[in-house]
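Appendix C reproduces, verbatim, an entry submitted by the partner laboratory led by Prof. M.T., so that reviewers can inspect both the input and the predicted structure.
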Amino acid sequence: MNRNSVYILEDRGLLYINGDDAKEFLQNIITNNIENVSKNRSCFSALLTPQGKYLYDFIIIKHKSGYFLDCEKKIIENLYKQLILYKLRSKVDILNLSNEFVVATLTKEKFLELENSKDEVGFTLKFREDPILLDPRSDKLGARLVINLEKLYLSIKKLGLEVSNLNEYYNYSHKLGIAQIDTNNLQDKIFGIECNFEELNGIDFKKGCYIGQENTARIKLKDKLNKRLFAIKILDGEINSEEITSENKNVGKLLINNKNPFGLLKLENKNFNFDADLRCGDAKIKVLRPDWF
């Protein structure tokens, strides 16, 4: 990504969680530790099924007396309904602010030019009273600015940035092995820990109980992580099947089928042969190795 590029993530939505019980409410349901979220620290987290399967993922950012949840816009209504189900008698307000606020992303280099910034994933500061943070999943994804839509373009001008093609950002995210588009296709089909949430700083194994914690901890402690979500590159042909094969042997399943596809691949002795000849339907494919693997 170009140093002075900014990408307006119009496909991201924002919920705002506020109220006397907001911190406790989130702590009881999310995979990460809300105690670590402050005006100077944001985190990546997820909501799982009771069985530990993936439901939703989001970035949590402290804002005023509450928390922003930065998530894929297409799932925001369902996430809102899920949170309302868990609310019960908690003193919590849940607002959908997607029409008022927007998320933009800029490079790590530009973020580090800001006064008081730090080279730490999740580090958060204010720019013109709006939170800007180094992506808590990976600093290679750059920084995220959460801002009122009316202030967006003036802030972009003050930062000396130029709006760039959004596809550049998501293509780069795909190369890093971080799924952000069509994540609803993962719902209830894959364990949260298989989504590489540990490597992306999205799970705290030392915090107390949360929904799906038992199976997540069991997979971790008993070393039962035998599948992982990986980015897939199409080398030739067309994907017209979910089954991923190597020498006519099933080695995985395609879960996200768009221009930046992802599949759940089986591991052998905790490893994967990234040089293997793989097929998905009529397509010849390659599994991309993420830096953290």
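The mean pLDDT is 96. Additional entries are available on request from the coordinating office.
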